Amino acid sequence: MSKALIIEESSMKKPKVSVCLITYNHEKYIRQCMQSLVDQQTSFDYEIIVGDDASTDGSRAIIREFALRYPDLVKVLFHEENVGPSQNYRDVHFQARGEYLAHIDGDDYWMPWKLQLQADFLDAHQECVAVYCNALVLTDDHKFLGVFNDHIPEVFDLGFLLAEGNFLNNSSLCYRSRYRERVVPHAHFLDYLVHLRLGCSGKLGYLNKVLVVYRVGSETSILVQMTDKCRLLSWETLQAAQHMPVSKAVQRNAVSLFIFDVLHEGLRRFDMPFLHHWMHRIYRESGAVRNSAMFVGMLRVCASIVTAPPRRMRRFVFGPTAFRVLHSR
């Protein structure tokens, strides 16, 4: 790990919530993000820890500006060399002193009451190890597309999360700090693995309120830059889930969702080597749920083809940017 510069530790007493902000080359977005953090309306003390992974744009100047303006609120971890998102994530989360830790990526931002509502929820729901919320989806050219998800129970468990796929927004996560060692992996990972590990530790909560604005398709988005890498990490996450305390039916559904994604992407691109590689790997590595997951995954593709005309008609009537749900059940 590279050495890092920490700008002046906060002198305030131990906060109730630590905001963990991860950023890399977010010059276009970081001011709006940080302003939304200092504008949080709370009845308790909180701190903001910013981890900058050796940005090469103007991000650091903006971060320094906030650190100097709010010295009792903002603490900064500047990496001198690029350590990658996973290590940056760990470094920031393990600097946090709060009872609750709230994560945000540097290209997203929050509504002013987000921290208060989530802290109140965790105070009232001792069975929950973490709480999430809904998010408004914003494009890089400032168009609102819709919301991140819908119809999520207020309290759910690991089985529901694995069966439904990764419907949670990472910048909406707020969890109890005592679980960070279990949930923050050492190696490269997707946020889905963090959510699943939290689900192994207890119930998860959900506030069906739009408290986050999620910027989809930004030029710094990991999903834009690492689609194939993310697919590989998604599969490795599902492999890890085979050892989690869930039923075979839940595992089958999770693998079938991944198969649907592979088939959909391969057919869309007419990429036979891609399909051959992934279907062979899934068949080889999906264990006891192999055959049933393959069958269900193919049924999902068939159902998608059948329902495609209504979706095209909807786009024709309402336009390509019609308000929609990114992760609809």
Keywords:
single chain, 329 residues, alpha/beta, Spore Coat Polysaccharide Biosynthesis Protein SpsA, Chain A, 2 domains, 12-stranded mixed sheet, 12 strands, Glyco_trans_2-like, hexosyltransferase activity, Nucleotide-diphossugar_trans, transferase
Overview of the molecule:
This is Glycosyltransferases involved in cell wall biogenesis-like protein. Keywords: Transferase. One of its GO terms (molecular function) is hexosyltransferase activity. InterPro entries: Glyco_trans_2-like, Nucleotide-diphossugar_trans. This protein has 329 residues and is of the alpha/beta class. The protein has 2 domains: 219 residues, Spore Coat Polysaccharide Biosynthesis Protein SpsA, Chain A, CATH 3.90.550; 73 residues, no CATH class. 45% of the residues lie in helices and 22% in strands. It has 13 helices and 12 strands. Strands 1, 2, 3, 4, 5, 6, 7, 8, 9, 10, 11 and 12 form a 12-stranded mixed beta sheet that branches. It starts with a strand and ends with a strand.
CATH architecture of the largest domain: Alpha-Beta Complex
State the total count of DSSP E strands.
12
Structural class: alpha/beta
The first-level CATH class of the largest domain is given as: Alpha Beta
